[in-house]
Hints:
The complex is a heterotrimer. By secondary structure, chain A is an alpha/beta fold. Chain A is globular and about 60 Å long. In chain A, strands 6-7-8-3-9-10 form a 6-stranded mixed sheet, sandwiched between helices. In chain A, strands 2-1-4-5 form a 4-stranded antiparallel sheet, with helices on one face. In chain A, helix 3 packs across helix 5, helix 3 runs parallel beside helix 6 (155-167) and helix 5 packs across helix 6. Chain A has helices at residues 43-51, 73-79, 96-102, 112-117, 120-139, 155-167, 185-200, 212-218, 236-240, 243-250; strands at 5-14, 17-27, 32-36, 58-63, 66-67, 81-83, 173-177, 204-208, 221-226, 229-234. Helices cover 38% and strands 23% of the residues of chain A. Chain B has one domain (16-319): Orthogonal Bundle (ABC transporter involved in vitamin B12 uptake, BtuC), CATH 1.10.3470. Chain C is mainly α. Chain C has one domain. Chain C contains 11 helices and 2 strands; from the N terminus they run ααααββααααααα. Chain C has a two-stranded antiparallel sheet with strand order 1-2. Chain C is globular and about 55 Å long. At the A-B interface, helix 2, helix 3, helix 4 and helix 5 of A face helix 7, helix 8, helix 9 and helix 10 of B.
Amino acid sequence: MNAFLEVRDLRKTFGGLTAVDDVSFKLEKGQILGLVGPNGSGKSTMLNLLSGVYAADGGSVSLNGRSLAGLAPNAIASAGLARTFQNLQIFHGLSVGENVSVGRSCRMRSSVLGSVFGTSFARREEADARDQAFSLLSLVGLERYLDEPPSSLSYGQRRLLELARALASSPSVLMLDEPCAGLSQGEADELAVLIRRLGESGIGVIVIEHNMRFVMGLVDHIVALNFGRKIAEGDPRSIRENEAVIAAYLGRKRHAAH
Amino acid sequence: MVPPRKSARSRLLRLIAPVGLLAILIALPLALKNNYQLGIAHQALIFIILAVGYDVLLGFTGLLSFGHIGLFAIGAYTSALLVMSTGAPFLIGLMGAAVLTGFVGFLISIPALRIKGHYLTLLTLALGEVIRLVLRSMEWLTHGSSGLSGIPRPEILGFSFRQALPLYYLLLLFAVLTVVFVWRLKASRFGRAFMAIRDAEIGAEVCGVNTSKMKMMAFAISAIIAGVAGSLYAHTMRFISPEFFSLGLTIILLAMVLVGGRGTILGPAIGAALLIALPEVLRFVKEYYLLVFGIAIWLCVILLPDGLAGLGRRLLKRVGLAA
Amino acid sequence: MDTFLQVTLSGVTMGCIYAFVALGFTLTIAAAGVVNFAYSEWVTYGAFIGVTLVSVFGLPLWLALLATVLLCAVMGYAFQWIVFRPLEGRHFLTTVTATIGIAVSMQALATLVWGPYALTLPTFFGSGVVNVAGVSIFPHNILIIATAVVLIGGLQLWLTGTDIGLRLQATAQDPVAARLMGIPIRHMRTFAYCLSAALAGLAGFLVAPLFVVTTTMGFGLMLKGLAATIVGGWGSLKGAVFGGLIIGIIEALGATYVSSEYKDVLSFLIIIIVLLVRPRGLFPEPIAEKL
C-alpha cells in the first residue's frame, strides 16, 4: 500500500441533492493530480470534504494509512493536509507575513504565558516563523510585502499568498482550488513550475482548475467528475480523448457506437 | 535568506508614542488640583483596563459580547465580599475575582461556540442583565439594591493605598501591565489566531487554528481582565451597587472601544480616558451632554470605523511617522 | 378560574403591544437588514407626541391617535435619509451601535423637550371597567386587542393578497433577485421604514394610558419586543406577532403565579433559553442568515 492519500467511496448529500456520489481515487507521494469537471460537478465539495469543512455522509479518507474521518479542519491540517480557497480566506487585519505565519499554527507549541513573557523558546519559535514566512513569500515572489497589509496585493498576488500560507504547515498533501484564477499567463506558467517543484520535493498536490491548458501541461493524473460521480480517470492524454469527459463539458450526447 | 529586520530607527520612533504617553500619565497628578480630579483619574485607569480587556474579545476575535459589564460586576462583588467577609488581604480578593470571573467567562464561551453573530450578542446581553438582577436579588449576600459600602482601599504587604495619590500609581501600574500584556498577546501566535478567526474563520480552521479553543481563551482572558478591573473598581470607589452595572454602562464600554478604535491596543485606552474625562470637562452643559454623546457615537461609528486610533495612525502616516 | 382568565386577558393585551413593537422592529430587519435600536425611542416619542397633541393642542383623542401615527411615519421617512441609508448593508455591530447612539440622543432630547417628569395620556373610555362573561376588563384593553386583530389580520391579507405586499416580501427575501425583477427596492424599503415608525407611534399611544409616559418607557417595551423577535424568529414578521403574544402571556402568568419581583428577569431568561435551545426561534426566516 503505497498510496499516500486514499479516498474511498466518499459521499456527501445536501438535502435531496447528492453532491459527491461514491467517489474513489488515490494520490501518490509527489504526484500531481488534477480534479476536473464542469461547474457543479462536485469538485469544490470534494475539497471541502477532504479538508474537513464538510462532514462526509459516507466513505473514508486516509492519509498514510491514518483515517481522517470525522476530524475537525484544524486536526486535518495538523495531520498534513493543507488547502487554498477559490473565494479567498485572507486575514485582512494581519500583515502578509503574519497571514503566512497563521498557516504554521498547528506546528507551533509556545504557551500563552510563554509568548507574553518572552521565554527563549517562544522567541525562537516566533523568529523561525518569521524566517519561514519570508522564505515562503520569496518562493511566490512576494517577499517585499512581508510587513505590508494584504490590501496592497492584487487579486492574483493574494491567491499566491494563500499558497504560501498553505505551505507554512509543511504539508504532505496540498490542495489548490482554482490557483490560476486572476493570474496572467506568465504568472500561471511560473506557478506551474512552482507546483512541479513542490511535487518533486515529495508533496502530493491536488489541483482543481478550469484552465485546461494549465492542467494538461502540469498534472500526472486526472480524475474527472460530473454530477458528483467519477466519470473518468487517467493520464492527461487519455482524458482529453475520453468521450464521457467531452460529453460532460460540451453537454452533447453522442450516439452509442454500433 | 533572512527577512529584513525592522530598522532600529523605526523601532525607536514607534516607542515614542507609548513612552511619551506613560511619562504624561506619571506626571499627571502634578497637574491635577484636588482629590476629586484624582478620583476621576482613578476611574479612567480602571476603565482603561476594562476596555483594553474587552477589546481582546471584540476587536481581536470579533466576538460581539454585550454582557461584559456582568463580568465586571462579578469581579467587583467577588473581591469586595472576599475581603470584607473573610478579612482576606486585597491581593487575595483580586486573585479570587480574577479566577472566578475568568471561570464565568469560560462558561459563557461554551454556548458561544455554537451561537454566532447577532444571536451571540443578544445572548450575552441577556446574560449580563440576568447576572445583574441575580446579584440584586441575593440580598443576604450582596445587600441587594442598597449595595455594598465600606469596601476597604487596597493594602499590599502592609503598605496602604488609602490615599488618592498612591492609589493612582497602583492603578497606573495595573493599567500599564494590562496594556503590555495585551500588546504581547497581539504580537504572539495567539493574537494572530484571534484575528484570523475574526477575519476568516474557515480559513483559520484549515490553517490549523483550533478555533474553539481560541474562542474560549479569548473569553477567559478578557474575563480575567474584567475581574481584575472589577476588583480594582470596588476597592477604589469603596461602594458598589447593582444599578451601576447596567445596560447603560455596557453602551458606554462599547463606545469606549469603538470610538477609541477596536482591534488596536491604545485605542480602547484612549476611548476609556476620553469617555470618563469628557463628562467632567463638559459638566456645565450636562443636559446637552447626553444628546451630543449619542450623536457623537453615531457619527464616529459611521465616519471613523477605525476609531480615533485609526484616525491618529492615518494622520501620522501622512506626516511619515508611522508605517 | 376567573383570575386565570383575567390574568391571561391582561397578558394578551400586553402581548398585543409587544407584538406591535416586535413587528415594527422586525420590519426594518426584514426589508433592509437594518437593526434599529432607536426603535424604543420611536415608541416613547409616539406617547409623548400623543400627550402633547391632547394636552397642549386640545385635539380629540381619535384625531390625536391618527396624527401621532402619521407624524411618526414622517419621522420614519426622515430617518431613512439621515440614518438608515448609510447603514444598509453595514455590519451588525455598526448598525446596532449607530442606532444606540441615536437612541441615547433621542432620549436626552425627550428629557429636554418634555421635561424629566412623568406625563399622562387619558384613555378613550374613562376609567370604568366593563364586564364581559364574568371577567372585568378595561375597555381600553379591548381596543388594544381589537386594533391588533384588525391591523395584523389586515397586514397578513395585504402581504399575501396584493401586488405590493408580495413585492415587499420579495424585497425582504432576496433584494438582488427582486431588483432584477424590476421591483423598486428603495420604495419598498421607504414603505417599511414608515410603517415601522407608524407601528411604534401606535404602540406608544396605545400603551400610554396603561402606565405613565416617561422617557424610559420605550426602552422597557423594546426589551420585551426583542425577546419576542427571538422567540418568534429573527427577521420573521409572523414570528414577531406570535412571539409578542407568547411573551405577554408568559409574563402575566409568571408575575401572578410565580413572583412579581422576578418579572424583569423573565424576559431575559426566555431570551437565554430560546437562544440555547432553538436559536432560530419558532418561525426561522432565511433572510436572517444574511446578517
